[in-house]
């Protein structure tokens, strides 16, 4: 087995990934976001071009099963923009799905994940490179436990990394207790998203000490007033010796957030977040968060 990042164009070595947006979306739709769907391939191409022009070379798309991934569109976009793309399988919170869709995969969710990781998504032939699941606000409901159990089964079958949406940045330790404690997933295969939304340094340190990855993603979301705390949180973790566990992402989820639609979009991560963070923690650590760490976090010994 050779450790590699599974992109939509095939497996690549960790060191080939380059400057990486570790959590974002090119396509996404949800009943919770009516009229704000990311479903325009031309706009996705323009956003990737803007990201590439800002110095980016890889994007990990966390859009999971049943939320409009448009997997077949990803390989041509990757080739045209010259940006590595990683696609996700997995399942978000129940509110993002029609009940009928959830019923379709009841009892076979882990098999769906494994198939999408190893065979391909639908008829696209595109293999997913991670499993995305989600917790709740300070808690894990039955749906979260179901999806995380399926994600753990898929991990054990394939070695795929598991990326976790933390609702408002909360519940990190409960997630680790379930995935790594009860379900036996190695911490270095778990990526916790949205730590910037709940800048609790005690929780951050405890999570990092487990050996998992901590993603600071979604800067300048209008309803998250924690951007100014993020450099301090990163600095505290680095000073405690956890700089090698940190990731950065943009998490563009609606049309108005794209740079091509007047929002910050993917380029903001490199145009504004990178220099702001470098002024607080140094360029060397920021380079590690954007280049070295993602290559390791999203690599797997694929089975």
Automatic annotation (TrEMBL):
Keywords: Hydrolase, Metal-binding. The modification N6-carboxylysine is found at residue 132. Pfam families: PTE (PF02126). The keyword Transferase does not apply. Belongs to the metallo-dependent hydrolases superfamily. Phosphotriesterase family. This is Phosphotriesterase. It comes from Streptomyces osmaniensis.
């Amino acid at each position: 087995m050779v450790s590699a990042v599974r992109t939509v164009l095939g497996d690549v070595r960790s060191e080939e990934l380059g400057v990486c947006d570790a959590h974002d979306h090119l396509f996404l739709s949800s009943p919770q976001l009516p009229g704000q769907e990311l479903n325009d391939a031309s706009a996705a191409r323009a956003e990737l071009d803007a990201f590439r022009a800002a110095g980016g070379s890889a994007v990990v798309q966390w859009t999971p099963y049943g939320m409009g991934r448009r997997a077949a569109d990803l390989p041509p976009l990757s080739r045209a923009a010259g940006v590595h793309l990683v696609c996700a399988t997995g399942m978000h919170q129940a509110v993002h799905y029609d009940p009928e869709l959830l019923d379709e995969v009841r009892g076979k969710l882990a098999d769906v994940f494994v198939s999408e990781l190893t065979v391909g998504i639908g008829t696209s032939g595109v293999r997913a490179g991670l499993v995305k699941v989600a917790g709740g606000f300070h808690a894990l409901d039955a749906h979260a436990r179901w999806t995380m159990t399926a994600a753990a089964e898929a991990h054990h079958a394939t070695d795929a990394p598991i990326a976790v949406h933390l609702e408002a940045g909360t519940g990190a330790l409960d997630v680790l207790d379930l995935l790594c404690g009860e379900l036996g997933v190695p911490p270095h295969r778990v990526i916790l998203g949205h730590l910037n939304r709940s800048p609790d340094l005690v929780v951050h340190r405890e999570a990092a000490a487990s050996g998992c990855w901590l993603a600071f993603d979604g800067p300048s979301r209008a309803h998250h007033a924690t951007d100014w705390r993020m450099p301090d949180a990163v600095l505290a973790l680095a000073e405690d010796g956890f700089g090698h566990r940190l990731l950065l992402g943009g998490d563009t989820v609606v049309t108005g957030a794209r740079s091509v639609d007047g929002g910050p979009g993917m380029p903001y991560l490199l145009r504004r977040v990178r220099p702001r963070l470098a002024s607080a923690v140094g360029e060397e650590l920021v380079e590690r968060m954007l280049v070295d760490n993602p290559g390791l976090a999203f690599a797997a010994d694929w089975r």
